[in-house]
Amino acid sequence: MQMLRRAAGSLCVLLALVLPMPCEALVVGTYNMEYFSVTGEERFTPEEVQAVAKKILSSKADILALQEVADQGSLFFLVARYLPGWSFRINDTRGKQDLAFLWNTNTVATAGSVRPIFRGETYRDPRRGSIVLFDKPPLHGAFIEKGTGFRFGMVNVHLKSSSTLGQRDRREALEYSRRKRDAQIDRLNAFAKGAREPLFILGDFNDPDAEADFPLLTLEDGFSYDARGTNLDYVGYVHMVRGPSWRVYEVEGSVPSRAFRNRGSP
Is 0.85 surpassed by the pTM of this model? Predict the structure, then answer.
C-alpha cells in the first residue's frame, strides 16, 4: 500500500498484497504528511489531526511509511488520541521532515529493529566533490503479518527534491538534484540486491521518472502530485512476485481546511 500526494489535495495510494495463505490482504502504503506537527505557527489543529486519522483508517492500511513528520510528539498525539491500537516508530532528528512507520497492531508487529540506514555515507559528485548521500537517511524496519507469519522488511525513503529555492543557477541546481537522486537510487539498488527476504522500498522519490533495478509501482491513473501532474511516490518490492491479486489504489487524504489555506497537504 502506498500513500501519495500534497499541494492540491493529498492522495493515499495503496498496494493491496494478498498473501498466498488464508488471510485478508496485507495493505502497505506511503504518505507524505507535509510538515505534520501539533505545535508551532503552522500546527495542525485537533480537528485537523482527527481528520488525518480518519483518512488513515479509511485507507484500510495495515502499515504506512510516513514522510515529513515534524517530531515524535506529534505522532504520539495522533496515535494516543485518534488511533487506538496503532503504534509507530520514528527517526526523530529534531528536523521537520522525519521518517516514520505507522502500523495497526491488530495485524502487524515488529520482527526486528527499526533504524535509519546509510547514515553518514557520502558520495563524490563530479561538480561538488564529497557530499552526504542522504540528508534524510532511509528508515528500515522488519515486520511480521500476524495472521500468517509472513515476514517482510520496509525501507522508507524521501529522496532529494528538485527545489531551486535560493539557487543562482537554476539549471545546475536541477542537474545536481538529479545526480544526487541517481546516487541515492544506486545505493538503494545495492541494498535491495543484498536482501534475503521480502522487502518493500517505498516513499517519496521526488522523481516522476524514477528508475531502479527493482520493480516500482505507482498510480496508473491520476497523480501523486496534482499541482505538477506527476507521480513522485512509489512502492518498490524485492523477493516477491506480483500476482493478479495485487492492486494499487488511491484514497483521498486531503484535509480541506489546510488545502484552503494553501498550506499543502494533508
Answer: yes
